[in-house]
Amino acid sequence: MKWDFLFDPLISIPVLLGIGLFAGLTIVLSYARSARSVRRGLRLALTLMRIGVLVALLILLLRPMAMVPRDEVRDKPVVSVLVDTSQSMNTKDVDNRSRYEAALGALVGKKNDSILARLGRDYNVELYSFDKDLRRTAPRFLTANREAEGKETWIAAALSNAVKGAVAGKIRGVLLLSDGRSNETDPQSSMRSAARYLRTLKIPVWTVPLGTASEVKDAHVLARLSSNFLFAQQPASLLVSLTATGYTNWAANLQVYRENEYVTSKQVMLENGHAETSIPIREERRGVYQYRVELEPLPGETDLDNNKRSVIARVIDEETKVLVVEARPHWDSKFLLRRLRADANVEVTSIFYINPNKTFAVVEKGGKSDESDKTVLPGLQMPRTREELLKYDCIFLGKDVDEVFSGAELKLLQQFVAEDGGNVVFFRGKPYEGQSPELSKIEPVRWGDGALTDVYLELTAEGKANPIFDYGTRGKPSDVIIRELPAMTSVTRVTDEKSLAVVLARVGDGRQSEPIATVVYQRYGKGKVMTIGAAGLWQWGFLPERLDQYDDIYSRFWSQMIRWLVSGSEFLPGRDVSFQIDKNTYKPGEPVRMTITARLVERSRYQPKIEVVQPDHSVVRIAPELQQDSESMYTAQFTPQQEGEYEAVLNNNTGKPEKDVVRFTVYDDSVEQRCVQADREMLNLISDVTGGESLELAQVNTLPDKIQAVEMLTRERVKPEDIWDRLPVFSVLICLLAVEWFVRRVSGLL
Fold it and tell me: Which CATH number, 3.40.50.410, 3.40.190.10, 3.60.20.10, 3.30.70.1670, labels domain 78-110+118-213?
């Protein structure tokens, strides 16, 4: 086969030729002057040999290359097909079919002439479904589901992950069937980045936009409380957010109801389809109260079901008393105390253990900027009796607790949690050296050896749903915010979690088969025990300027943790049974964990039953189960699907009360449901940047021909290969230099 040649010099050819000409003249003049004693023929031969060496060197510097034919790839190339399975694909605007049904019809509608069958003749087809996650699938799994079920859409992430680790030239193209509606933090920027990434890999993307881009008139109401836990006789706010499509600079009227009784009205202006407002509320006594916000229907609105939103307000009326015990002071304990002292509803006692005969104690009323409510009590000792422990609602324990308390006193700490409904937080990892049977019994984890350094917290599904990590509406979910905060300086390793433990956050170092549980709690008897196995949380309270938007995260973390612990472990007066859920608002499909704690009831007779009343007034009956590691705790789980208000009714066959009720709401706040018009421009952007094409649904069958056409235009049939770095070339050059040196030596020129 004929080969073509080219030069690829390190410097420009004119410069090389100039250098060669100058060197050649120097050689000629040198031999002409310095070798007069040598006969003319020999001088000429030496000059020619030296010039030959120079020419050879110049040729090497020109870097000659041959265009060698490439070996043909024998394996079938790959075409990846990505199908959007998020809920916006259920919109029926493609010839009276949903977008999802239209996509499946194009892919597998005609078995022998479907696009998957036609592509499969020449390519290995890798079929994926995606929403927030990308999954390898098969046609039978796609057709088994009549509706798309994904809660979010991440198109850019799906494209990047589909070609991750691809061998150069192996993937010949990507077919993307979607409506273009993506819920990533910055969809346009994310998709541009993904498209540029695929372009560098020379992988074109053919997009099939599904659905209409016409704007649907609709308004959606969101409501939340200014805090997860409210205090009696203190002002709070009901925060309302309106999002509307098809309404610009439109006045909207809101009505607010408390326990189905009218409270107030408010008019807001929808500027650019969005409005936010706050409505002051105040409760005089403790309890659980329901507020409902309703938006008056707007002209031409298509969906009225999302015009109202209920929230459940949990109100507490007692000042929380917290004890912090430290035997080895640290930055974490210093910043924790600073935070607790700033909370107006917390009285904090801090006791620093110096030695068995000396302690230093400070009692402070929270929220004061002066010293009027700060009392230094050098005579105050560690709580040594049950009565002394009962003065506190929550106890924070630092390091070396086994030096501070005796074994008998640690057993009282067990009783404080299990029988008295107290709460304990180990806020700096393992609180003792060696072994402590008393503390290990109540801890939710089993400690390992060593620690990880400079690792970031990652919220679990339970952590994302827990009020401790609820940081309000910041445009980002809590797990994204946590990843942007500083890393933990140290995290104590654990071997495993106990059966009742709930993991809220983990860390990993990339070498662990399973990430390490770091923020964990468990119900123990009537109270809760929480372990925070990390050092370095203080950095969240001392953020750099670039993270100023999160300057209240550290405060909210500890405040909400204390409120959540204390509010969930109380027995009301005259009651033998406590009925609790972890929070008051859930998403569809998110499990609701219900906990029953019974005291002073006959265990053999006690048979609790739960009835869950759903928004459509249907009833689901659940039988709670006694936990294996507990003599008094029963748990049940219910997974709601409908949006709206729920009541869980506990029926007790013995003990008091005979009936107890907890209330919660279920809503899906995903923008996936609120904005469903197709975004064709976004899909066109992807295809344009990557060198593909945007196809209509009827054009999908032309894809195999289009891939082959692009393949013929872009396929590199030859590859450049250096031809100077070979043994014969260097052998001739060396021999030429050796002969020239030998002749000069014999001629007496050296």
Answer: 3.40.50.410
Give CA–CA dist 102/339, Å, rounded: 56
Q: Kindly give the pairing relationship between strand 92-94 and strand 320-326.
A: unpaired
Interatomic CA distance for residues 171 and 163, integer angstroms? 8
Distance CA 416, CA 436 (A): 17
Tell me which residue of 393, 345, 323, 314 sits closest to 582, measured CA to CA.
Answer: 314
Which CB contacts under 8 angstroms, 24+ apart, belong to 111-117? 113/701, 115/81, 115/175, 115/700, 115/701, 115/703, 116/81
Ranges for all domains in the chain classified under CATH 2.60.40.1930: 577-671
Task: Spell out where 438-533 has E strands.
Answer: 445-452, 458-459, 490-497, 502-507, 516-524, 527-532
CATH class entry, domain 218-316: mainly beta
Which letter does DSSP use for residue 725 in this model? S
Topology of 320-567 in CATH? Rossmann fold (3.40.50)
3-state secondary structure 642-698: CCEEEEEEEECCCCCCCEEEEEEEECCCCHHHHCCCCCHHHHHHHHHHHCCCECCHH
Residue 380, phi then psi, degrees to nearest 5: -70, 125
Give 19's Cβ-side CA count (13 Å radius): 13
Which CB contacts under 8 angstroms, 24+ apart, belong to 11-15? 11/61, 13/62
> Do the Cβ atoms of 588 and 233 come closer than 8 Å?
no
Q: Which of 242, 244, 246 is nearest to 215 (CA)?
A: 246
* Closest alpha carbon to 180 in 675, 698, 702: 675
Q: Are strands 516-524 and 490-497 parallel, antiparallel or unpaired?
A: unpaired
Instruction: Label residue 182 exposed, middle or buried (CB < 10 Å: 0-12, 13-18, 19+).
Output: buried
Torsion over CA of 101, 104, 106 and 108, rounded to 10 degrees? -140
Residues in the chain: 750
User: What's the topology of domain 577-671?
Assistant: Immunoglobulin-like (2.60.40)
Spatial CA neighbour of 339 closest among 551, 518, 567 = 551
Q: Which residues of the chain form CATH 2.60.40.10?
A: 218-316
Q: What is the residue type of 397?
A: L
- The number of C-alpha atoms within 13 Å of 110 and in the hemisphere containing its C-beta is 7
Encoded tokens for 558: 């500890």
Closest by Cα among 281, 214, 268 to 241: 268
b/e code 640-676 from CB counts within 10 Å (16+ = b)? beebebbebbbebeebeeeebebbbbbbbebebbbbb
What is the CB-side half-sphere exposure of residue 418 using CA atoms within 13 A?
A: 15
3-state secondary structure of 222: strand
Could you report the average pLDDT of every consecutive run of 10 residues in the chain (750 residues)? 63 80 79 64 75 78 70 71 91 88 85 79 90 90 85 89 73 91 79 90 92 79 82 86 85 93 93 87 88 93 86 82 84 86 84 73 61 51 83 89 86 88 89 87 90 90 85 69 89 89 83 78 88 90 84 87 75 72 86 85 87 95 85 88 93 88 87 75 92 89 84 60 72 78 71
Q: Count CB neighbours of 251 within 10 A.
A: 12
Torsion of CA 207, 212, 216, 221, to 10 degrees: -20
Give yes or no for a contact between 431 and 397, defined as CB atoms under 8 angstroms apart: yes
CATH 3.40.50.410 domain span(s) along the chain: 78-110+118-213
Start-end ranges of CATH 3.40.50.880 in the chain? 320-567
Please list, in sequence order, all residues whose beta carbon lies within 8 angstroms of the beta carbon of residue 102, skipping any fewer than 6 positions away: 94, 95, 210, 697
List C-alpha distances in Å: 722 to 59, 80, 132, 308, 716: 12, 35, 47, 72, 17
Task: Give the separation between CA 45 and CA 412, rounded to whole angstroms.
Answer: 106
- Give the SS3 label for residue 563: helix
Distance CA 516, CA 203 (A): 38
